Amino acid sequence: MGHIDGAEVAKHDKQKSCWIVLDSNVYDVTNFVSEHPGGAPIILRHAGTDATEEFKKYHPLDYLTDYLPADARLGPVDPGTFGQLRQIKEEKAVKASDSDSSHDLPHLSLCVSATDFEQAAKAVLPHKSYIYASTSANTGLSLKGNLDDWGRIHFRPRVMRNVGDVDPRCRILGHESPYPFYMSPMGTMGAIHAGAEPEMYKGAVRKGIHAVVSTASTKSSEQIMQRYVEEQESMKRASPTVLFYQYYMPVDRTKAIALMGIVKKCGYKGLWITVDTPVLGKRTADRYLQAEEAFAVGLEESASSWETGGDNAFAPAMGGRPVQGQLSPHTTWEDLVWIRKEWDGPIVLKGIQCAEDAKLAMEYGCDGILLSNHGGRQLHTAPSALMTLCEIRTYCPEVLKKLEVFVDGGLRDGNDVLKALCLGAKAVGVGRPFLYALGAYGSKGVERCVDVLAEELQTGMRLLGITSLDQCRPSLVNASRLLNEMYRPDQFSIKSKL
Ligand code: HEM
Ligand SMILES: Cc1cc2nc3c(=O)[nH]c(=O)nc-3n(C[C@H](O)[C@H](O)[C@H](O)COP(=O)(O)O)c2cc1C
């Protein structure tokens, strides 16, 4: 195969003839553009350019052989002509290092609250990446409810309790954790930081907190585990951090079992099955961006055909179009029977949103449940995790004794973790604050974010009058405002059967 001149490649920058350079090779992707699950606009934007760096944020290089026909590869670019490729106006790059030298970025020490990381990330991330992290469903009310409900519970502190020393440690699914919070699973971290998931979990390992790894990660489950092990080795295995795995169920049973096999082989310590995502929710900010991108490259007509989602859309939300088969809308409670046979470790259902389903999870022998509305990214006006926790306390308190109950969504202050624990939760998942910290400062930002939350938590324990987490109890909080609005069935009982 002869070398291809960069200037020639630059000419093929339209839908009717679209070439792109990836890993020093020229590909004719004209027929693939409209098939691309990430949408045609992103490919057309990079038509005629070297898109390798951008490509690697989202995909392993194997995709080039897995998804493109062999004859799409036209040959290597003439190395002396890279400069003649089409250039696009660069967006701010995703930072590859921990350096905080960017003039837009406040010094890390100026981040003193978990909410500060969002502003920092907004200043340095490409707009598309920020939208990916921050977007929420529909009019944004589910996200707003998450954020607001923490403030609707007030503490009832006890004083004069000798709070000189406090112990914030707890156990999560049998694994000791320095604090009762962990890192929530989030997909496509490569869009947020060039180091992607390994950079995020480096921060977790350094601070000892546990993390749940997403099925929709940029890096493979094996790569993530490998880098985690290397980080642990570098710390002489002194970190208590373990990795759990968040599982999106593929439609195809064989693929579902194979994925579970990989997860098991890698050594993930528990399966957190996401059950609030039978289809992708409507991510409004994503939709605007997608429509703008399509419009900019003259594809406004076809944009709408990506929006309906088919019946089994995968969760990634970088403006990507649903991928058939990656996420099953057909999952039922009965699936837990075969999953249990394939997976002998702990099972947590992620995305429980009412007391009935909490009870069902208990009856089906799950080890834990995570009360969550997916960070307000799925159902419009979904209940906050705290509201669901109130329901469980009221209608099926036995669940709190038998299962480990976790909550997530909207936590932005370490003090608030204590509210969830007082109402019976085991620990709280934290999502976006860590993602923003990663985007702005890499793993150092993640470490700082853990420190910020941990300091607030420990100060909160002292001001609340407790010295260990087993002293968290319902009388230390006033949840009346949430209880007033809580669902009331006709009779004061609920049934788990559908
Ligand atoms: C030309 C070869 C390409 C192939 C074969 C390819 C393949 C795919 C596939 C299979 C997906 C579905 C999701 C997944 O499995 O990860 C996807 C999604 C996506 N692709 Fe590509 N892609 C290509 C080029 C690109 C380029 C050049 C970019 C960026 C400049 C890009 C950005 C994306 C994005 C943003 C998504 C959505 C991911 C998400 O929402 O998490 N792709 N692509
Ligand atoms: C950018 C982003 C990506 C996410 N990806 C996933 C995912 O792949 N799987 C999943 O179960 N939950 C995912 N979630 C939901 C989180 O696990 C978690 O439920 C939520 O972020 C908690 O809310 P918070 O971000 O307000 O802390 C994602 C959330 C965000 C913000």
UniProtKB/TrEMBL annotation:
Family matches, as CDD domains: FCB2_FMN (cd02922)
SUPFAM superfamilies: Cytochrome b5-like heme/steroid binding domain, FMN-linked oxidoreductases
A Pfam family hit: FMN_dh
Annotated protein name in UniProt: L-lactate dehydrogenase
Record domain FMN hydroxy acid dehydrogenase: where: 106-482
Recorded family membership: Belongs to the cytochrome b5 family.
Domain of life where this protein originates: Eukaryota
Alphabetical list of PANTHER family matching this protein: CYTOCHROME B2, MITOCHONDRIAL-RELATED (PTHR10578:SF104), S -2-HYDROXY-ACID OXIDASE-RELATED (PTHR10578)
Protein keywords: Heme, Iron, Metal-binding, Oxidoreductase
Coiled coil regions, renumbered to chain: none
Record InterPro entries: Aldolase_TIM, Cyt_B5-like_heme/steroid-bd, Cyt_B5-like_heme/steroid_sf, Cyt_B5_heme-BS, FMN-dep_DH, FMN_HAD, FMN_hydac_DH_AS, L-MDH/L-LDH_FMN-bd
Organism: Ampelomyces quisqualis
Domain Cytochrome b5 heme-binding: 1-78
Cofactor(s) needed by this chain: FMN
GO molecular function, one term: heme binding
